[in-house]
Amino acid sequence: MKPETLNTLLAGHFVCQYAFPEAYEDLSEQGEPERVDQWLQSLDRRLARLGDDGAFFVAPMQVHTNEQVAKVKADLARFRDVYGLLVEMLNLVRLTKEGFRGVPGEYVQLADILLKVNEDTTLVGRLRELRIPGADSRLSNNELLRKMLEKLRADGYLVLSNPSTETYQITGKVDHLHAVMQYLVENVPELTDNALPDTELSEDEAESSQSDLLRSTNIDRHVDQGGRG
Amino acid sequence: MNEAPNLIQQLLKALADHSDLVSEAIRGPVSTGGKRNKGVDALIRMRALMPVDEDTYYLNPLLREFIGDYVVSYGAFRQLAQLDMPIRQLRLEFDNLREFRREGSARDADRAMDRLDDAVVRIGFFMDQNLQMLGAKVTTNFGDVDSVAGKIRENKFYIEEVRRFSRQIVSLEAKVQEMEHDAVGMQMPEVRRLLNVRILSRLADWTARIADIQRVVSKNLFALRQIAGQQRNLANVALWLSKNRMSDGFELDVAPDAAALLAAPAVLATTWNVDVADNDAAVAHGVLAAAKRLPPIIVAPKPGPVESPEVITTTQVVVEPVVEPIDDLIDAYVENIRHPEALRIGNLTSLLQWRERFGEAFGLEQTITDEEWLLYACAQIASAGLQVEVVARTRGPGEYNDVFTDAHARLPGAMAVALNS
């Protein structure tokens, strides 16, 4: 039970192997999660984890269920403020990165997504619609994308794995966002529409991830136009 | 006799001379052009390249497979090597060997033994090849296909392949154990040793490795399904955000177990203070440095010793009420009534006469009228317990009030009796 590990947890971070490798390694040792959990219980907290092999984080004890429920409900009611920008930024990365999976450990390179954005005016439009703090319309696509990735890094969803190539890596915190979106999709009928084609429809459709990309882009574009109309 | 080695050498030399062409052909079809014509011709002669279309040549699939094994690179949906045929071949060679031994044909028996040896080696080779390919597939997470859907399909494909492979291992074990049993009965210890060392002793390792791969492949399938779902969720939620720009969020009832899953981490602000009693060198140095930065202490003069206050008296001063002359005059009258002997004034009981006689002596000035005197004195005397009788004249016709001109006091009945006795 290293003090740095406990400090990282108490600061509210998701401890995964990419964002906090040493703390994650510490927590992955045999019996360590139980010891940390026991220690946290004296602070009225508990050690939680995203899935079986996801990131560790500190959660309130079960007795605080009511406050927890209230907090989650409030966050969902203000979804656009709390998660909106994050969802739109990750979605833009999905549309620009071939074979994007959105899982911890996946690499995202600025140059790759810049190339895709510059090839597609709809993606440029999406990028320029993002309300990234500190960004304005005078910035170039390159600078906007850099600010977007830096915002994701500042929020703990990316780590800069190679500064010279501006290559980032997705952290385990993204699993929390996936859990929130999964809950929404399961509970909000409007969200069950297929924005992405069914991956098991036919061999041809799935042969090329590029076709998936174009298809989803076209669908989104169509909806956007419909929304404006 | 030397022809075969020469051919092999020629083949290997041709491959080495045109290795760049072979490398290119591993990735896809090649065609002629410029300096490549000679190389393509040479490789076609060696059957390393195969024409499939006009000026389109593919690498020999067997060569591709061989090189693919070496560089651990496999195409998508490549089937595992089937063990059914090698197992049947093994059994056939074993039966042949048994028959030749029974017939006493030593030379044929030796050849059959060599073929049996080859069959055993082939089975071991296929087992290792299959396991190597599966290992590469799971470690690269089916990197030979890009789309998620393709990965899911390939994952499902290999789940079936692994199942079939597992069944073949079970079949192999049963067949080899049967042959081993026969070998013991037929006095063929070298065959028994061969089967034991080359196959049976390695079966446990193969089985364990295939079980591990099966577990990873199954988990991968689940994970890939999840990934596809996650991407779909991301796309759907992003779509909702762009379609419903006037909506802030979702009014949902959240169950406690869902809240535990969705809640963000609880931040607990921590800070620390220096333990000044810590004798660690670093801490002590830090404390001293911090102490030096403090402003100088202003020493206040010490106050003198505080003495206990002296107790002078504890008696409370009683302020006596001031007695007016009129009250003294009334008190003397009352005393006179109660004790006439003490004052030697006889039976003087008229209040008017009492005032007239002793008023001045008691300092009562002529500032009050007879009427005021009588009213005040009657009330005071009555409150002292004496009985007051007024001297009233007879009412005239039409008078309804008694007008008194003087008053007398006397002891009440019971008190008078007691005093007289």
Describe the structure.
The complex is a heterodimer of chains A (229) and B (421). Helix content of chain A is 56%, strand content 10%. Chain A contains eleven helices and five strands; from the N terminus they run αααββααβαααββααα. Chain A has helices at residues 3-10, 21-27, 32-41, 65-77, 79-96, 110-119, 121-129, 141-154, 174-187, 203-207, 209-228; strands at residues 45-49, 56-60, 107-109, 158-162, 167-170. In chain A, strands 3-5-4 form a three-stranded antiparallel β-sheet. In chain A, strands 1-2 form a two-stranded antiparallel sheet. The longest helix of chain A has 20 residues, at 209-228. Chain A is globular and about 55 Å long. Chain B is built from 15 helices and four strands. Chain B has helices at residues 3-17, 19-27, 36-45, 61-70, 84-103, 106-139, 148-185, 189-243, 256-262, 281-292, 325-338, 340-343, 351-358, 370-383, 413-420, and strands at 49-53, 56-59, 387-392, 404-410. In chain B, strands 1-2 form a two-stranded antiparallel ribbon. Chains A and B meet through helix 1, strand 2, helix 4, helix 5 and helix 9 of A and helix 7, helix 8 and helix 9 of B.
